[in-house]
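Exercise 3.2. Students should predict the tertiary structure of the chain below and write it as structure tokens, then compare their answer with the key that follows.

Predict this chain's 3D structure.
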Amino acid sequence: MEVTSIPADTYKVGFFGAGKMAESIARGMVRSGILPPSRICTAVHSNLTRGHAFESFGVSVLPDNQAVVKDSDVVIFSVKPQVVKDVILQLKPQLSKKQLLVSVVAGIKLKDLQEWAGHERFIRVMPNTPSAVGEAASTMSLGGAATEQDGELIATLFGSIGKIWKADEKYFDAITGLSGSGPAYIFLAIEALADGGVAAGLPRDLALSLASQTVLGAATMASKSSKHPGQLKDDVASPGGTTIAGIHELEKSGFRGILMNAVVAAAKRSKELSPS
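Answer key:
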């Protein structure tokens, strides 16, 4: 099958689904200068608030999904796993082999997406909610007919909302359990750290600010340092000091095992979402 290259300077991106994830990705594209808002579109069927959110930064809100297909070179499916099959089958007659199809839907495999769409020029991407602040951790896997140039295009687009890696699709359930669901685990940790600060006597606002900034700082050190996280932890934990006393309590409660179990449970649920 011959694959037509996406026009380098004039391509348009359309979103099926106008939720928070689609909005975050579109905002990142505009904010980074990768695409002007005039070359991005979506459709909103009932929730006018979602339409206003896209229009607020210049994205076109079209009458229906068929209009989005007609006006897009890159089509991004950003809907719930339970409805993505119906959406693709409904739009299948309008989809063209010239278009690059992208899914950010959790748990739905490329082989199913390709079968429903009727062609294999599909790329699956797993972003996460920090895309809203330009700090996403995304991973992509290319379908059978997607070219390296297609992959480079998607790496550029999703690179506008954070960092992106390429991986075999067999890892995607684990990726969903780690980076897809992981922000929620960190939000819980921030809340718990702040509660601990309050319990130790801090005002609530100060405790929450310190907890949030501490997590941000630690994550930045882990991502930018050449040291293993275990070494960074050791650097903080002086003999007989306050940090090792706190770590001892975490270990007694099975802190690391709990986080590991959370990732495995979320990965298991991701597998269950797949129809095949």
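Discussion points: Residues 13-173 form a domain with the Rossmann fold fold (CATH 3.40.50.720). The two ends are 26 Å apart (CA to CA).
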